[in-house]
């Protein structure tokens, strides 16, 4: 059994060929797609965060709105770039959104991917300390975020407060019980997966890995997942370790699918990201019986408990709901995911 949700980048473009032409369209359609996927029996609505781009950016208003309109599905990010974040303010936003959703947030955070501008985090007021890299800064922000989510008091109260305080040091409010245990890290390497387990965060294995050993993407990703699980067990965490992978999967079941994705399946690709070699995972597009056979060979999907379907959001809510429904109806049962 797997949890199956969708992952949307929330692209918009003022083009006649796009169903998502404005930022308002992207946000409102994201909410509508989450509602539709919950009604179809899906398990999650996840959103990518990109700054300085015509895509979803500030996630917490959207997560809160989805939480208010749904009742069952998990709601999350994949991922929030911690280079850009004030971790204390983020903890307040996350606590509020999680309370609105009834404790359903699953927040993916990370160092982030290459952005639209050079060192965009500097425009947000952040820069690495002397001797730090931007990746170091992201981990520092993440460490503070995780600490304050624990709910321990750390701030000295005013001796003459405007409102009465509880005794002792004060914590951030609103506080949402259990949110600390629902934080994930987007890892692009095997070593980062091991670090993630040591921090007690769940693993979001990226759609690209910033290393290449010559083996197929799904095998390298499966190796990363196994290292994460081994490290989690060695650390003695009492909670269950969770792992997600994301894939573009398009069952060809009608003429629309054939027009959009017929013949568009591809193979792994090897390239460079910020001067580092990277291996990119393939997309899957075929009639259901062929998809089942191909996906059964994907070792990383087999190893993960959560599968996020990367949706082409600019094709609109109805079509993306159809894609998710097709996976749930024609593919998932045949592979034992349902």
UniProtKB/TrEMBL annotation:
It comes from the Bacteria. SUPFAM superfamilies: Bacterial luciferase-like. GO terms for cellular component: cytosol. Pfam families: Bac_luciferase. Residues 9-259 form the Luciferase-like domain. One of its GO terms (molecular function) is oxidoreductase activity, acting on paired donors, with incorporation or reduction of molecular oxygen. This is LLM class flavin-dependent oxidoreductase. It comes from Nocardioides pocheonensis.
């Amino acid at each position: 059994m797997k949890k199956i949700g969708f992952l949307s980048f929330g692209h918009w473009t003022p083009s006649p060929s796009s169903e998502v032409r404005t930022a308002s369209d992207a946000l409102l359609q994201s909410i509508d797609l989450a509602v539709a996927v919950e009604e179809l029996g899906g398990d999650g609505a996840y959103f990518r965060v990109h700054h300085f781009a015509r895509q979803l950016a500030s996630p917490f208003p959207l997560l809160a709105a989805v939480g208010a309109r749904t009742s069952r599905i998990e709601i999350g990010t994949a991922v929030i770039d911690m280079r850009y974040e004030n971790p204390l303010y983020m903890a307040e936003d996350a606590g509020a959104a999680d309370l609105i959703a009834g404790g359903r947030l699953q927040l993916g955070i990370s160092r982030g991917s290459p952005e639209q501008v050079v060192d965009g985090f500097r425009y947000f007021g952040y820069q690495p300390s002397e001797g730090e890299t931007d990746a170091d800064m992201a981990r520092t922000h993440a460490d503070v975020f995780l600490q304050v989510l624990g709910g321990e008091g750390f701030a000295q109260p005013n001796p003459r407060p405007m409102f009465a305080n509880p005794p002792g040091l004060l914590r951030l409010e609103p506080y949402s019980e259990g949110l600390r245990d629902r934080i994930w890290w987007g890892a692009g390497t095997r070593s980062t997966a091991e670090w993630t387990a040591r921090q007690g965060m769940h693993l979001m294995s990226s759609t690209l890995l910033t290393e290449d050993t010559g083996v197929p993407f799904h095998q390298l990703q499966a190796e990363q997942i196994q290292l994460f699980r081994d490290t989690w067990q060695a650390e003695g965490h009492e909670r269950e370790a969770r792992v997600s992978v994301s894939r573009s999967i398009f069952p060809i079941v009608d003429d629309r699918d054939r027009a959009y994705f017929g013949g568009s399946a591809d193979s792994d690709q090897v390239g460079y990201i910020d001067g580092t070699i990277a291996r990119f995972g393939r997309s899957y597009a075929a009639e259901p019986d062929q998809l089942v056979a191909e996906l059964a060979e994907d070792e990383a999907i087999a190893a993960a408990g959560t599968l996020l379907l990367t949706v082409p959001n600019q094709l609109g809510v109805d079509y993306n709901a159809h894609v998710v429904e097709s996976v749930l109806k024609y593919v998932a049962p045949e592979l034992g995911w349902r």
